[in-house]
Every structure is written in C-alpha cells, then in structure tokens.
Design goal:
Blueprint lengths: L1 H7 L4 H21 L3 H6 L5 H16 L8 H24 L11 H12 L4 H7 L2 H27 L7 H29 L1
Helix pairs in contact: 2-4, 5-6, 8-9
C-alpha cells in the first residue's frame, strides 16, 4: 500500500521513509513518557518506526555498499557487530517485560539491524543468516506477525483459557504458520510480481 501511495503521488521514497520513521518514533517517545504503554504495543502508528527503520536500513545499505578498503580496526569492529547484536537480542529476551523502558525496547531492533547488515562478515553468522529455514521464516515474518495476534487474543480472551496449555499454543502456532504460508503464496507473492 505504501509503495502504491509513493508511486501514485510521485513522492521520493527515501524522504517518505525517513519522514514516517521520525514521526512514528516521536509519537512513540511521547506515548512512552505519558505512560501509554499498552497503546504503544497494540496500535500500529507506534510500531511503524520499527518496520520503517528496517526498510530504511535495507534501502540505505543497498544503495551505499561500501567497496572501499577498510583499515584493520574497522574490519575487526565490523566482525564484532553481529555478536553485539546477538547479545542485545538475548538480553532483551530475558529482561524485556511490560514495564521495560522505551530504550530497552529498542535493543532487539538495533540487534537485528546489526546481525542482518554485518552478519555476513563472519562465517558463523553468515551460515545462520543464509540457512534455508531462516530465509523462509524471514519471508513469512510479516504474515506471521499479522496472524499470530488475533489467534492468541481469541485463545486468551474469547475462549477464556488462561492456564498455560502447551498443546493449544502449539496448535495456534501451527495454525498461524499455515495461514501465513497461504497468505504469502496467495496474496503477497502475486502482489509483489505486479509491482
């Protein structure tokens, strides 16, 4: 939808991405200082900056692949960055909760950017990033993100099942994956081919 908007109104894509990212980020900062934590989690306007930051990172790094020789310090630094990104994500997994500050919530985003951009500089991360399963999950990630939320909300609120039931949660994960694959094959792929 965004690509169509940019094409129809002939807007500079990079300027549009930067503007939306900044507006969403400022709104999120405002909401976090005014204690609207649940709104930040549930409303898309407060999450746009995360998606657009990923788009912006891809767009900028794709445009500016640096072919110049780097000195030894920068080569060493670039090899450390994916590991730093992994530690940021692991830290977030164990220390992230509903009361976490806005800046701690940025750790997994920054960590993901570091791994995706600089992960190919080390053999270990390069193998992980290029592993077939992770590539498939990456392509389905937006659909998974869209489908998991209504399924798990329905499970918790409408069925009023509050106890931890691994079997039901496993079934919901399978249902989410099935719907995500169907959505990707029947909606996203044909739409991408038309663009």
């Amino acid at each position: 939808m965004i690509i169509l908007f940019v094409k129809i109104y002939k807007i500079n894509f990079l300027k549009f991405l930067i503007t939306i990212t900044i507006i969403s980020f400022i709104l999120t900062l405002w909401a976090s200082t005014n204690k609207y934590i649940s709104a930040i989690f549930y409303l898309s306007i407060f999450r746009f900056w995360e998606f657009f930051l990923g788009c912006l990172t891809f767009y900028l790094f794709k445009k500016s692949e640096n072919k110049k020789k780097l000195n030894t310090f920068f080569l060493y630094l670039i090899k450390i960055l994916p590991t730093a990104g992994l530690f940021l994500i692991i830290y977030s997994v164990f220390n992230f909760n509903s009361q976490s500050s806005f800046f701690i919530r940025m750790y997994p985003i920054i960590g993901s950017i570091l791994i995706i951009k600089f992960g190919t500089t080390t053999l270990f991360f390069s193998k992980i990033i290029n592993f077939f399963f992770f590539i498939k999950i990456g392509r389905l990630s937006y659909s998974i993100y869209l489908y998991h939320f209504p399924f798990f909300c329905f499970y918790a609120h409408y069925l009023q099942i509050y106890e931890d039931n691994p079997f039901l949660k496993g079934m919901l994960i399978i249902l989410t994956l099935i719907c995500s694959v169907l959505s990707f094959q029947l909606i996203e792929k044909p739409f991408q081919k038309k663009l």
